[in-house]
Specification:
36% strand, globular, eight-stranded antiparallel beta sheet, single chain, two-stranded antiparallel sheet, 200 residues, alpha+beta, 2 domains
């Protein structure tokens, strides 16, 4: 959820932010052992007593499962769990980046959800690409002391040429120097250029 860090920093007014754990309704996965670190530096340590964990390299077939002791540092994996309550080899569909180890415990960063995407036909836009496109348009707004607070998107296929609709909530810190319609149009063009070639 890295896209929310600037918003949290803006509204917290410098207060410390702590994220204690990485968990889901299935079970607890890991703990943040450095509670006062910056949100962008959070690393979770897997708690192997909460479930049986195996990892699947991001670009591998389902037969290439890796035990916690055999992971490679600086690689991305998908988490697969078997819980005490009966889930067996459940794919969590989160992408994790392995940072290293704390004692013998594996440490990782949450990167993104796997397969969260926009798609009309053969084009595929995942969450990371959409976030990058938003960041690219945000650069055009900096000189106007304006930033993207929040965004959302959906696929509109009501017309023959389907397209993505992306809403951005902007916060202009100086209303006298707010972005003009031309600048907002440039942001739309930049967004279009940032999406993949198949969609364009």
């Amino acid at each position: 959820m890295a896209q929310y860090i600037p918003t949290l920093e803006y509204y917290s007014g410098g207060l410390p932010m702590a994220c204690t754990m990485y968990a889901s309704s299935e079970c607890y996965f890991g703990l943040n052992l450095n509670l006062m670190c910056k949100p962008s530096e959070i690393a979770y340590t897997i708690m192997p007593n909460m479930a049986y964990f195996v990892l699947l390299p991001l670009e591998s077939s389902a037969s290439n499962l890796v035990d916690l002791s055999d992971v490679e540092i600086c690689k991305e994996y998908k988490l697969i769990i078997t819980t005490w309550s009966g889930l067996c080899r459940y794919k969590v569909n989160d992408v994790l980046h392995v940072n290293g180890f704390h004692n013998a415990g594996l440490q990782f960063c949450f990167v993104r959800r796997k397969n969260v995407l926009l798609s009309i036909e053969s084009d595929k836009i995942d969450e990371a690409k959409l976030q990058k496109a938003i960041e690219n348009t945000s650069l055009l707004l900096k000189e106007f002391n304006t930033r993207v607070v929040e965004y959302t998107s959906y696929v509109d296929t009501k017309q023959i040429s389907g397209h993505y609709v992306i809403y951005r909530e902007l916060l202009a810190n100086d209303s006298a120097n707010a972005p003009t319609v031309d600048v907002l149009n440039q942001c739309c063009l930049q967004m279009e250029e940032s999406l993949n070639l198949v969609y364009r």
